[in-house]
Amino acid sequence: MQSxxxxxxxxxxxxxxxxxxxxxxxxxxxxxENELRKLGGGYDxxxxxxxxxxxxxxxLTKAVPFSSPLPKQSFMYSSxxxxxxxxxxxxxxxxxxxxxxxxxxxxxxxxxTAKHIMQIVDKEAVEEVRTRREIPEIRPGYxxxxxxxxxxxxxxxxxxxxxxIARRNAGLNSTFRIRRLVxxxxxxxxxxxxxxxxxxxxxxxxxxxxxxxLYYLRDKMNALKKH
Amino acid sequence: MAxxxxxxxxxxTQIFPIRSLTLSSSQSLPHSNFFLTQRFSSExxxxxxxxxxxxxxxxxxxxxxxxxxxxxxxxxxxxDKWGARVxxxxxxxxxxxxxxxxxxxxxxxxxxQIGCGHKKAxxxxxxxxxxxxxxxxxxxxxLREFPVxxxxxxxxxxxxxxxxxxxxxxxxxxxxxxGKGFQGVMKRWKFKGGPASHGCSKAxxxxxSTGQRxxxxxxxxxxxxxxxxGAEQRTVKNVWVYKIDPARNLIWVRGQxxxxxxxxxxxxxxxxxxPDVSKLPFPTYLSPEDEDPSELEPLVxxxxxxxxxxxAE
Lengths: 227, 313
Known about the structure:
heterodimer; A: disordered N terminus; B: alpha+beta; six-stranded antiparallel β-barrel; four-stranded antiparallel sheet; 5 helices; 16% helix; transit peptide (chain B); Large ribosomal subunit protein uL3m (chain B)
């Protein structure tokens, strides 16, 4: 039953860390009494930790001097503060500074945890693409020349040159639109910023614009429109 | 104990006529006593006949592995190594553990009850707490049973991880769909509705006729009508596993998965597109002791050496 032992020791560590993390926020002794009452009231699957935790609490409160400018009412919200304050620092494991190992996340609401995980994964994917390829800043109003490799077209590398009229930020799926004149016809194309098919992006010129989306150019730069 | 004696008494009435019922079981004839004890000794003493160990076993064609419980995190899109876009759903496998083993001797089927997530003791009812305490497992948020074959049983407390699945295999994902509320007949049952113009009076999105006239004189049961839609269990089949991250217990699967973000989904091996038996860890992936799970790199599905776009030309 080695697996049970290993899981239980990991959980022991997690319990210890969670208690120590959250206890650092409270400096008064009455909140620690709430802590002990809560521990005593609930069912504890690991009775050995209770002794350790109560010892921890008593040692911490002895070390920290009693100084509470907080009014009495805040202690009633201690259970609420417990969860939200603890959430800003991931409970459980201490924060690891290594960029590729993300800290263990233990929130109460699962959809919040899910969104947090999505954010972390997305940021890491963006970082990975950015370190591998040099992507300059692209804002609306820039004249840009791209070298796009089209896999459907026998992997030919085509050159696209036009003005950026819009940019949509969505993490890894950020896209930008380019408007150009192809054989006398205005053509707009949308490209994902972090796509591996964008071989090279070169910024040629920067025009001064006062908008984020330059859709008015559709009427202005239209060669087909008859005045 | 009362149940055992009740069973004994019922069996005594089956064997002997009713007049011998006046005698208690201890005072019955010596040869019948011996017969009874010989027959029911195993049931009375309750000796466990099955010892389940967690060790790798050869998987046969009719074996069935357990599934795991995950949390749906969201959807995004990635580029595979040939530059094609892959829409993916990210599933987070949060600390799965075997919390109960069901066998034919006691419960009648072979099944594993898997628990996922964490829960505080104050949020669980007393029967649930007793169940966890009796099995010796820490408190889980979601329990679900997966029927398996006899060779795929695992002992209580075995941890299941993301490496139970192999990138490149197909899985079936079950979940509770998003609730859509009270919906009309066009959205709920995909009716065509009525014409938008040409004199159609106030029946653009209605269901139309509901049956015949005097015979049968009623509307048949099961008639598709507006009602509450969604929030029911559905299975999406043959979902391709694209990537696995053992360090963080994440699975990337292609396509959509039922349910909203933050809801539990249950992943099993695909029923129709059965994976290659030799590649799957059976009964589950048992990690060696010296392996540190946080150091492992994510595993991506093998997409082949030939560029699929060049092939098309």
